Amino acid sequence: MTEQPDRVPHLAMRASDADRERVAKVLHDAMAEGRLTLTELDERLGAVYSSKTLGELVPLTADLPAAGGYGLLGPTPRPAPERRIGGVPGPATSVAFLSGFSREGPWVVPRFHTVFAFMGGGKLDLTQAGFAAPYATIQVVAVMGGVEIVVPADITVRVQGFGLMGGFDHRDSVDGPPGSPVLTVTGVALMGGVHVHRPRRGR
Predict the structure, then answer these.
(1) How close are the terminal C-alpha atoms of the chain, in Å?
(2) Parallel, antiparallel, or unpaired for β 112-118 and 135-143?
(3) What are the tens digits of pLDDT across the range 141-165?
(4) Alpha-carbon distance 93 to 82, whole Å?
(5) What CA–CA distance (Å, rounded) separates 95 from 141?
(6) β pairing state of 146-150 and 112-118
(7) Please, are residues 132 and 86 in contact by the beta-carbon 8 Å criterion?
(8) How many CA within 13 A on the CB side of residue 189?
(9) Half-sphere exposure of 18 (CA within 13 A, CB side)
(10) Is 125 helix (H, G, I), strand (E, B) or coil?
(11) With pLDDT > 70 as the criterion, what percentage of the chain qualifies?
(12) Are 82 and 41 in contact (CB under 8 A)?
């Protein structure tokens, strides 16, 4: 009980997507072991993804042995942002011509990467990617096509493209931690769309 005052500031902190996913995994495991019904799982997952603080997450696993008490939501060491920088650059182009492409998983974004989509679609998932240099530029040309770029939370993103009878989403132009890679997404969407966003929350 003497530790309770020390816990309060921590549990009042805003929950991250990683915190929610750790709790969600415990709940899924508990359902697989028969500790929760499918209905209970659905109810608790709804509470997980609507939670704002760590304190709101704690009761959702308090009756499950895998939760490990408050340790499940203890401070999680994060890799330094600069660890994303370095490695052998991957391909300099991604093309979808009347077709589609998808690039995801561990790969290294080169200093300059060109994306071209003509009457097709493509996806660049950078959540597990490294960066060959501290600054990278992705130039996108989408003509009657669509391109989705998923960017991690620990990098700085600048979106500078424009849409001509199309859309170029600028909502995720945000600053990352000091020392993080800086990604600039530029280009044009002609009767097409370019969507840059952080990973979506989901089950």
Answers:
(1) 35
(2) parallel
(3) 999 989 999 998 888 898 888 888 8
(4) 24
(5) 10
(6) unpaired
(7) yes
(8) 25
(9) 11
(10) strand
(11) 84
(12) no
